[in-house]
Amino acid sequence: MSKKKIDRMKRVGCDPNMISGIHNYCDRWCERCSFTSRCAVFAMEPEGGRDAKSLDIKNEEFWSELADNMQSSFELLREMLEEHGIDPNEPPSAEDMAEYNRVEDASDKHPLTRDAEEYMMAVMDWFKDSDSMFEDKADELATKIRLELPNCSPENEVIELRDIVDVIQWYCTMIPVKIGRAVHGKLEGVPDIIKDMPRDCDGSAKIALISFDRSLAAWIKMREHFPQYDDEILDFLVRLEKMRKTTEYAFPKARSFVRPGFDE
Predict the structure, then answer these.
(1) Domain check: are 237 and 126 in the same one?
(2) Domain limits at 19?
(3) Considering only CA atoms, which of 231, 228, 132, 247 is closest in space to residue 180?
(4) Looking at the structure, do residues 116 and 178 belong to the same domain, yes or no?
(5) CB-based contact 88:81 (threshold 8 Å)
(6) How far, in Å, are 120, 202, 234 from residue 33 at the CA level?
């Protein structure tokens, strides 16, 4: 099975329709992406596309497929390293490990990293404690539907509210990941030979900035639906705007970073 997957990965990699590296700077929201047909990572999904069962992270089949994909990727990586004369079994030097640990520790303690983690946890806690709020809204919308009020579209309001929640919940987990990667890359630095090339940390920071932008827009719409929670929602807006401004300052080239496919 793994050999078959490796061969498939090689075929996908040679497909001229694929956009090289597009998956490196995306938000991983494949269900809302317009480039899935040109993404090699998406093409490596099980034959026949994704269904609800294969996407369910609690499903044994999901984890089995994930483990299989990882093993195939490791085998392909090993082949590539050996082709370039690199021994994949050679342990890192003590100096390399010390530098890695230094960067890892500094990244974890960075204010942006901490703020992103705190925002994510605050959002999760807010939704966890908001069951009654959404139940009241559901009752309100059900009443509007039943009364068939003129100039009123509760069905569209339901769809909009669902989209708002999806956006906020998706990006609250994406923000710490991308901020962490951006900060780690900036602290790690780059060799002189590639200093003039686009930097991965700027690409990661750009995804974080896009996540801030979309989250801010979603929270503003959430505020319209739940004006009684104005203070709490304003707190999230302030957190996001602070992180957005700090990220733009720390990564001045992030906004202009050209992501393969998306910005070309």
Answers:
(1) yes
(2) 2-83
(3) 247
(4) yes
(5) yes
(6) 23, 21, 29
